[in-house]
Amino acid sequence: MTTHLPSCACCGETLADERRIDFGYDLPDAAFGLPEEAVHRLGVRGLLRVDGVGCFIRCLLAVRLTHGTELVLGAWVEVDEDTLRRADELWEQPGYADLSIEGTFANRIQPWGDDLLGAAVTAKVADPEELPCVVEVRHPVASRVLTRTWDRDHVLSRFPYPLPVDVRTDLGGRWSVLRSAGLTASFADGADHFTAPDRSASVSLMRDDVPGRAPEDFLDALLSGAPDTRPAQRLREALGEGVRYAFWLTRQDNGRPRHEFYGMAVTAGTAAGIYCTYEDPADLDWAQRTWRSLDRAVNGAAR
Question: Which InterPro entries match (predicted)?
Fold first, then answer.
């Protein structure tokens, strides 16, 4: 299968290490949408003054995730003018190693959202080659960001950017699916979309409008009008008390082959459908893996 490695949203370098995942925020929330002439960068990427808004220093917020992963966020801390001036003086000097910053967090980051935005923080330089690190969050709820270990899927599924790891994503209705490494995520027209330049997957949920109908009969109704493919291009598998079904084919699109994969996961009263396209025929394995990852939680846990 083709290797798909995403790039850092901050520096553009390849993200290949699942033990540390770095993401950067280009601006504090209050500066989004302002004209470029209102935003003044003080010679380096980590110092910012925004007309009519305030002064900001970019810092690292490290969050512990399950599976031995650390999420490191390059986000902004609002500071006073004197602190920004002192940081500017020390930034590329020996005294930078002793820089300590007091301010308030200036980005809204899910799943912590409004609890983190505006929280008082302290940041210090741990490595002279990196931005200052947030070492304390003084807020009764937001302080848990530093002290807890968070579920990796729960946190990373909030980030729409390509990730270096697979992330199980909640689809609603107790359904979930694996979003593969290297894919962006979005929601539009009632479906979750996961995309890369050479492959994509769209997942949507359906409810059975016939009460009490067996999953096999619901599947037959969903497949009404589907193209007939060779037996070697079809799969049917058990899904607990339900059923999975998939088929795939190759169409010609302006003289070029376009590989398509259609899959269903059906349980009593509800189903999840997936549609994948891909350029490399070897990515059929990826499409089948994504289809098989479709699952519905039973008593709060996936099968």
Answer: DUF2199
Q: Round to whole Å and give the CA distance between 112 and 269.
A: 34
Strand order in the sheet with 256-267: 184-188, 191-196, 199-207, 270-278, 256-267, 242-253, 234-239
Whether 35 contacts 85, CB under 8 Å: no
Q: What is the reported pLDDT for 113?
A: 83
The residue type of 141 is V
Is pTM beyond 0.90 here? no
Dump the DSSP string for 188-233: ETTEEEEEETTEEEEEEEEE-SSTT--HHHHHHHHTTTPPP--GGG
Going along the chain from its start, the domains and CATH numbers come out as: 20-150 (no CATH), 166-296 (3.40.1000.10)
**What is the Cα–Cα distance from 239 to 236, expressed in whole angstroms?**
10
pLDDT, tens only, 175-187: 999 999 999 999 9
Burial of 69 (0-12, 13-18, 19+ CB in 10 A): buried
Which pLDDT score is estimated for 224? 92
Least Cα distance to 9 among 152, 133, 164, 188 occurs for 164
**Residue tagged 């049917």 (tokens):** 236
Of the candidates 274, 112, 259, the residue with the CA atom closest to the CA atom of residue 178: 274
Q: Output the six-digit token pair for 254.
A: 């302006």
Which of 9-13, 69-73, 87-91 bottoms out in mean pLDDT, i.e. has the lowest? 9-13
| 179 in Cβ contact with 193 (< 8 Å) | no
